[in-house]
Write a structure and sequence with these properties.
The chain is mainly α. It folds into 2 domains: about 70 residues, no CATH class; about 60 residues, no CATH class. About 55% of the residues lie in helices and about 0% in strands.
Length: about 160
């Protein structure tokens, strides 16, 4: 992300003007660069319909925004929720791999895919997008420390705790 930001400053017009090869080079560090590059291009092409105005996108699409994002090439459940939370400032629980491992360790069974946890977690009504971003970030940082290897979880401050959803 840092290299992408440095080269484009996340400027939509700049990103749309990149050649395929340039986009590949910027996305390559994230892995699966060909598919991710196509997804980036699809999102920014789609955003141009709204003059790159994120607030306008939210106003125009309202509660259908997530559904519309999922129609774009390369955008699945997790990416749609990340975009909602970080770009469109709509607090959304991101049920990524670290979240599923954490909730499994805390006693929630059968978390086999993204939706298996996302369906069960509803953020409080007063959660802001900043709080949702922090929550996601904290879960990911926790996972980086205590899930490699997974046995390190037993050393964490959450070892022995259980959740009830």
């Amino acid at each position: 992300v840092a290299g992408f930001r440095k080269q484009t400053n996340f400027d939509p017009n700049h990103i749309r003007q990149l050649t395929t090869a340039e986009l590949y080079d910027l996305v390559r560090p994230a892995g699966f660069y060909k598919n991710k590059s196509r997804a980036v291009a699809a999102v920014f092409t789609w955003l141009s319909q709204y003059n790159d105005d994120y607030r306008q996108v939210c106003q125009d699409l309202g509660p259908t925004l997530r559904k519309e994002l999922l129609k774009l090439h390369g955008i699945g459940d997790e990416t749609a929720d990340v975009l909602l939370t970080y770009i469109f400032e709509q607090p959304t629980f991101i049920s990524d791999k670290y979240a599923r491992v954490l909730f499994t360790q805390l006693g929630i069974p059968n978390l086999t895919n993204y939706q298996s946890l996302a369906r069960q977690v509803k953020l409080p009504a007063n959660f802001t997008s900043a709080a949702a971003q922090d929550f996601h970030g904290l879960i990911d940082e926790f996972g980086k420390v205590y899930f490699h290897p997974l046995t390190k979880f037993q050393e964490s401050f959450l070892a022995g705790d259980r959740l009830i959803l």
